[in-house]
Design goal:
Number of domains: 1
Order of helices and strands: EEEHHHHHEEHHHHHHHHEEEHHH
CATH superfamily: Cytochrome-c3 Hydrogenase, chain B
CATH class: Mainly Alpha
CATH topology: Cytochrome-c3 Hydrogenase, chain B
CATH architecture: Orthogonal Bundle
Strand content: 5-15%
Number of strands: 8
Largest sheet: 3 strands, antiparallel
Length: about 400
């Protein structure tokens, strides 16, 4: 009688795979359909944004950082602007800070919508992607209104905003905030008690609170494991300390818990946005009055020689930032997005370095999927919400 022999099989999942959420390669060792080991391979996107930033003037870095985590563009530019403003010692008017809060929370909802649609679609709920994109289009319309660009608005600038809010901004935001809670109810009606979805997500990709801390996992992943850390609460920035909102948490630490946390985060973002839009007057300060970084008003540029010279210098030579370094974290859609900037006193950054939450989430993947099935890998990657532009920066 011939001796039976078994062996594992090594296969590639990615980098050209729709369920890896970008050019991520996973080398999977399979015993049948059971994952014995997984080895992530990154670097295929190789944008080099951090290094490229050293060749650009301070303000020119804004469009670059927005293309890292391309689903959270304005969260990236906010963190970078706050970091440079810390080196410059700038204090923004309250109206500017409230507008930034509103934009950051709308960006969080927009990012979570793409996560929800793609994650649910990969598990089998294909229609969810169409519903999520339907609402996200309304947020992209708001971006287009304020900046003329939908995906990478570059509206948040060092020193404030690009320009004042346009007519119709309040009406468009309020219309979205009135519409969206009912749509969230629809999403939950489709998924939260759906037996197929729960079987695919409950108990899958479990991570404990201790492991989350060990891997540096923050944001919704850590909060779904019982840790309530949120930069907006622990290290408040802008005017978040004056806003009434809660930090949703769960204790199971699985894919289903991460889904529930993000759904509740969108509901809390709606609360923050409603408070912010009620505080923002239709007109007022949209930047600080520091002429080192903000050009003079156009009427003065046309009538005063000193203002014309200052305008010319800012747009041709840029501005200098005092020598030193600073680190500023914000709560992005995927967790703590930190920006570390070093200045040598010139008109360009000497060094720009990001703490990318997607990079942290990828390092935990091998442990989360080990012992599960191939189908579970898809569910876990979706629930970790990785963006490869954030990783390969």
């Amino acid at each position: 009688m011939a001796e039976l022999r078994t062996e594992t099989m090594t296969v590639n999942m990615g980098p050209q795979h729709p369920s890896t959420h970008g050019v991520l390669r996973l080398v999977l060792e399979l015993d049948g359909e059971v994952i014995r080991s997984a080895n992530p391979t990154i670097g295929y996107l190789h944008t080099g944004i951090e290094k490229t930033a050293e060749q650009k003037k301070w303000q020119q870095v804004i469009p670059l950082v927005e293309r890292m985590d391309y689903l959270a563009a304005q969260s990236n530019s906010l963190a970078y602007a706050l970091c440079v403003e810390k080196l410059l010692g700038l204090e923004m008017p309250k109206r500017v800070q409230d507008i930034r809060v509103l934009i950051a929370e709308l960006q969080r909802i927009s990012s979570h919508l793409i996560w929800l649609g793609t994650h649910a679609m990969e598990i089998g709920a294909v229609s969810m992607l169409f519903y999520a994109i339907r609402e996200r289009e309304l947020l992209l319309n708001i971006n287009e209104l304020i900046a003329g660009f939908r995906f990478f608005p570059s509206y948040i600038r060092i020193g404030g905003l690009r320009e004042d809010l346009p007519r119709g901004f309040h009406d468009m935001v309020n219309a979205f905030l009135e519409r969206f809670p009912g749509k969230l109810d629809e999403y939950e009606g489709l998924l939260t008690k759906n037996d197929i979805y729960r079987r695919r997500t409950e108990g899958v990709g479990r991570v404990t609170k201790e492991d989350a801390l060990s891997w540096g996992l923050l944001g919704p992943i850590a909060r779904a494991s019982g840790w309530d850390y949120d930069v907006r609460k622990y290290f408040p920035y802008l005017t978040y300390a004056s806003y009434d909102f809660k930090v949703p948490t769960a204790t199971e630490g699985d894919v289903y818990a991460r889904y529930r946390v993000r759904i509740q985060e969108m509901r809390e973002s709606i609360k923050i946005c409603k408070q912010a839009i009620s505080r923002i007057t239709p007109s007022g300060a949209w930047a600080c009055d520091d002429r080192r970084v903000v050009p003079p008003p156009k009427d003065k540029v046309y009538t005063e020689m000193e203002a014309l010279i200052q305008h010319f210098l800012i747009y041709s030579q840029g501005f200098t930032v005092p020598a030193g370094d600073a680190y500023v974290p914000i709560e992005g859609p995927r967790g703590e997005h930190g920006v570390y900037v070093v200045s040598d006193g010139g008109n360009r950054p000497w060094r720009v370095k990001m703490r990318a939450p997607s990079f942290m989430a990828i390092q935990a993947l091998p442990t989360l999927v080990q012992g599960g099935l191939i189908a579970d890998v898809v569910a876990v990657i979706g629930s970790n919400d990785v963006v490869m532009g954030d990783c390969d920066r």
